[in-house]
Design brief:
- This protein is of the alpha/beta class.
- It contains eleven helices and eleven strands.
- It has two domains: 65 residues; 190 residues, Vaccinia Virus protein VP39 (Rossmann fold).
- Helix 1 packs across helix 2.
- It starts with a helix and ends with a strand.
Length: 279
């Protein structure tokens, strides 16, 4: 089998699940990851032959894709800003808008700041901020012991030192020192919205990191804002990623709690997804 025939096989096997554009993207991701063949290299030599062991490995990955497993879990990692993040079923797949949030924090934060990432998951936010903000100290919390294992592995892989702690932000007694910046992308999808979620997400990604298992779908934001009274230094800045339909509710919550300089940002798709506020 050569590259061109493999591409046709992938399209035939997955055409009922993915669009043509998505199929092409999957093909190039697979050959780049497993064969180290770029899109340009494929165009230059689509007749390149594949050995049997590689064919067997890639066919096993297509089988997982047919089961609707996200490509990031099939491969087991993603790369953002040239940083590699190991992933498994215990952590969410990082989204482009979360990288946008990181870019915003980086561009707005001076060096020597103490930063807290609440709900760190794979460690994505914490690691990027540690890597790109000079001389900052980063602490990262998550309720999940398994997620923290992944985050610690990613910190080690990317050669950064982060203080990871298993913390439930909904608990009343949290002991920690204060921070210049707090960042969070907490669970914000209501369980009643579950049927609207793509099966690739709800069947594979951790529900505790997506859905709010509480009567109040803003509970995590409320608790973080409440605890910022003690956790955030005077003039410190709070950053959130949020459901676009609830960003105005979150803005009002911040105003009620006497935060100032509230800024809402849109993501690349023009949706209001990020907000910052100064204490």
């Amino acid at each position: 089998m050569n590259l061109k025939s493999f591409k046709k096989y992938l399209h035939d096997e997955l055409k009922d699940l993915y669009s043509l554009e998505e199929l092409d993207s999957l093909f190039f991701i697979l050959i780049n990851y497993y064969l180290e063949i770029s899109k340009i290299a494929y165009i230059q030599n689509p007749q390149k032959l594949l050995n049997k062991s590689i064919i067997k490995k890639i066919f096993s990955k297509i089988k997982l894709l047919k089961e609707n497993m996200p490509i990031q879990y099939v491969i087991g990692e993603v790369v953002h800003k040239k940083l590699k993040f190991y992933l498994n079923k215990n952590v969410l797949i990082p989204r482009p808008e979360t990288e946008e949030l990181c870019n915003w924090v980086i561009s707005s934060t001076n060096k020597n700041n103490r930063i807290l990432d609440i709900g760190t998951g794979s460690g994505f936010i914490a690691i990027i901020l540690k890597k790109f903000i000079d001389d900052c100290e980063v602490e990262a919390w998550d309720i999940s012991k398994e997620a923290l294992k992944v985050a610690k592995k990613n910190a080690q892989t990317n050669n950064v030192k982060i203080d990871f702690k298993q913390v439930d932000i909904l608990e009343n007694n949290i002991s920690s020192s204060s921070f210049d910046v707090i960042v969070s992308n907490p669970p914000y999808v209501d369980y009643c919205e579950k049927n609207q979620i793509n099966s690739r997400v709800k069947d594979y990604e951790p529900h505790d990191a997506i859905f709010v298992n509480h009567d109040d779908n803003m509970i995590f934001y409320k608790k973080i804002i409440e605890k910022s009274e003690r956790l955030l230094k005077k003039n410190g800045v709070l950053y959130f990623e949020s459901h676009s339909s609830r960003i105005n509710i979150l803005e009002n919550m911040l105003k009620i709690n006497n935060f100032k300089r509230i800024i809402i940002k849109e993501d690349l798709f023009g949706k209001k997804r990020m907000i910052s506020a100064q204490k």
